[in-house]
Each structure stands twice: as C-alpha cells, then as structure tokens.
Protein: Hemerythrin family protein
Organism: Oceanirhabdus seepicola
Amino acid sequence: MSKLFEMKEEYKLGIAHIDEQHAKLFEIGDRAYQLLKNTYSNDKYDKIVGIIEELKSYTIIHFKDEEEYMESINYKKMFSQKIDHAEFIGKINNVDISKIDHNQDEYIMEILNFIAKWLTEHIIEKDLMIVEK
C-alpha cells in the first residue's frame, strides 16, 4: 500500500530525538491512512479510538521534549511554539468519539487531514526555524 504519511528528508531538523519523534507521529498518521484504505474491515471503531489515544499521549511526550530542547538553547520563539502545541492537544482532546460510529471512514479522513496539515505545516513553518542560524 502507498504511504500518505512519510518522514521526508526536508522535515529533518538534525536533532536526532526530535526527528525520531516526528517520524513516530508520521507513522501514527500512516496507520490511520492504512486503516482508511482497508476495505476489508467493516468496524474500525476500536482502531480509530486507539490511534486517537496514542496520538494524544505521544504528542504530549513529544511537545514536552521539544519545548525542553528549545529552552536549553534559549529559543526566542518558544512561546508561539507552546501555543501551537497547546492548540494541537486541545483539538485532539476535543475529538468527539461518539461521532466515529456514524461514518467511520469520513471521521478517519477528518483526522488524517488535520494530522497531515498540522504536521507538515508545523514542522516546515515552525520547527525548522529552531535550527536555522
């Protein structure tokens, strides 16, 4: 199957643990995409909920680590990063799980669009600035 979510070279900051965590976020997104593409699975509810829960817990770890790194280098735009991170966590925490059963594929697509847009835009527009000289 093709991959929609893939950690590309242009997304790498050159900070190993952050790049590894970004790759993990892409991998979680790709699992959601593969679930959407799986036409043999009629009831995807438990897997969708599992992906959302993993995304919730993993982003908290990732954002904490990323913010600690920014603090360690006295990154000047850390406040705007923290706001973005809080907005992402808020969005994921406000996912209405009761809506999943109505149209599972549509719901997976909403999640995918959100993750794809946020990940690529945030990494390219914000995270890469952390390492710019």
Observations:
- Residues 11 and 120 are 8 Å apart (CA to CA).
- The longest helix spans residues 45-72.
